[in-house]
Structures are given as C-alpha cells and as structure tokens.
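Continuing the batch. This is chain 6 of the set; chains 1 through 5 are on the previous pages. Same settings as before, nothing changed between runs. Recording input and output for traceability.
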Amino acid sequence: MGIASNIISVIIKSVVNGKLGDGLGSEIIGIPIDEYSNIGVDKLKEFINGEKLKIEHILSNENMKILDVAEENIDFVVAELKDLLSKIEITDELFRECRYDHENLKDFLWNEYRREKYIIENESDIEKGLYVVAKTLIELMCESDEFERNLLIQISNTVDDANVEIKKISDYMHKNYGSINEGIQMILVIVQMILKQIHNKDSKENDIKREEKFKNNKKQDYIDNWNSRLFLHLDNEERPVTLADAFIMPEFDYCMRFGMIEFSDDDNMEDIIGKFLNYNRTSAMLILGDPGIGKTSITSWIANKYENNSDIIIIRFRDWESEELEKGLWKAIYSTLGCEKKDLKDKILIIDGYDEIKNTKRLLLNKFFNSLLDFNNFKLIITSRVSYISEEHFHYAFNYYHLI
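Output for chain 6:
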C-alpha cells in the first residue's frame, strides 16, 4: 500500500472508528525522535485532522439534508456508510482500477455494499451518500498524493540518516507496545514509510553516483583478457589455452627508492605486488620492460587476482589523445574516471602502457608526480617500455620496480 492511500486509510478510520483522539498531540511530545521526524508527525496530524473534517462533513446530518436524504433516514444512511467504509481496504490498486474516477469508485462502493445485503433499504439515499463519498475520496487521494510529495521533500532535506530514524521509531513503538494510541501507531508507520522511501531513494542515488564515478574503469577488460584464449588458440576447440593457462610471472630486478615497504630477498613479484597494494601510505610502482616481457599480462593478472577489490582501477594511456594530456595528466584521469581528487583516497590506480602515448613531454610527468604526495593513501602503478619513462620522476616516498 502506498503512502497516500495509507494516509486516506488513517483518515477514514479516524472518522468511522474514532482512532485519532484528542490526546494525539500530547502523546507525540514523548516520542524520542529527531525534530524533523516530529515535524513530520505534526504535519501528518494537521493534514489528517483537516481532511477528517471533510469526511465528517459529508457524513453529517446537515449534509445529508442538503443531499435531500429523508430526515427519518439520515441516521440509518450515515451508519451504513460508516460501516461500509470501515470494511473497505483503501489501496493504490483500488484507485487505479477505478481510474481515479469518482463515478467508477461510486460503482465499486455500491457493489460492495450490495454484496452483503439481502434487502437494500433506502437505496436511493444510500446511493446519494456513496456518490459524495466517492467524489470526496478521489479529491482526497489527489491531496494526499501532493501532501506526501511535499512532506517527503521536507523530511529529506533535513534527514542525515533515514535508517537511524526508522530504528528510533521502531524502538519506540516496540518499547511502548500496547500503550500507544492506535492512531499514533498508524501515523508513525506512515512516517516510517516516508523514511524508508527516502532511504531507498538515497541508496539508489548513491548507487548511480558510484556507477558514474570511476566510469571507464577497464579492470573488467583485463579480467576478460586474462581468461581469453591466446591468439594461436582462437580456433582450438579441443584444448584452448588462455592467458591464465600460459602466464608465468616474469623474473625481475627491483630498486627501492627510499621506500618504507619491507621486502625480503625471497619475495617474488606476486609477493611484492601484494605488499605494495596493502601498503597504507601513498606510493607508486613503475613496471618497465622490453616489448613482450609481460607488462600488460601482469596488469591482467592483478585485475583477475584482485577481482573483488573495488579499490583497484585500471585505465590505459592509449585511450587518451595528445590534446587531452596537454591539459595535464590528472585532469585527464579525473575526466576519464568521472571522479575528483578526494575520490581517489584509498584507491589503487593502474595506468597501462605509458609508451603508447605520442609526443609526451617531460613536463607532463614532472607536474604529475610533483602533486602525487598530496594524495591520502593512494597507490599508483604505471607500466611502460624501457627508456620511455625515467625513475628520476619518482620521489623519496615512492618505490620503483624494473622488470627485465
């Protein structure tokens, strides 16, 4: 059931069953929820009481006289209408089936009324009352729907954590179970529904933002490459060989430049990469090698091994045009990933194939590495052919590795 139809249900119950007593306001004062939630409750109470007066008016003796209901039949007609409304479940589906048309809703109510009656007394007067009730309910649905949107916006603009407030209300209702006015319970349930809607909306927006951030992350491409057939085995259906089958970690020499990561002489490349990725300070790794030595394969290996690590991001130098890099490497990175500098905290960025960009200027890397120390717990790995990039760009806080 939607929020608007829940509000209507509360209004109807408050009229036909007297569920919302005069003590509502004083009881609400004791609810230990944040101010915005109290505002939400107060707004709901104010709206419900206002709409309640409308329903009470159409069921009043005065209105029945205006509808030309015979005076001797008024009490009977009002009692019958209230009894019917107490049994009808107000839902979004009901309004949709009636196409939000009061004539259709009146026909529905009339059919429901006739269903339990062997003999219908004062048929004409009952139909007059149902017509006005149906018309009022359709108007009330529109007003409740608009009220719901406005209240949702009001609470959403104030809320910090909808889940926290949902729990506060749940705890309050559980603690005071059996002693809370039923009308208050219904109102608090509606506030919870609004908070849940806000939470779901925020979660969805956050998911979208997360998807938008770090867009163009090529990590999955490298995972696919790791599991794809080698070129000579594309047509080999009997025993295809993938990169994962054939990969052997290259031998290497490494030179640590004033870094604080401790490696042992027995560490292989897998050990070194693992320690590097788990290092909790900003650092950089340069993987150099001759053509075919396996630089891109190492990147694919990292992508596959750390497939479930969402902090690892992979992009390629060859995807940038020279014009993009002229504005600075960091700007190119932010633009490609759809992120800001603060978003790279705790991230591990691998940029593959530095040697594949054209007309690279030394100044580009100087500016890039000079600002690297401004990042918080950020790791960078760059792969390139030998002689395209120099270790002189790496500062004292970085670690430099050279594949041979």
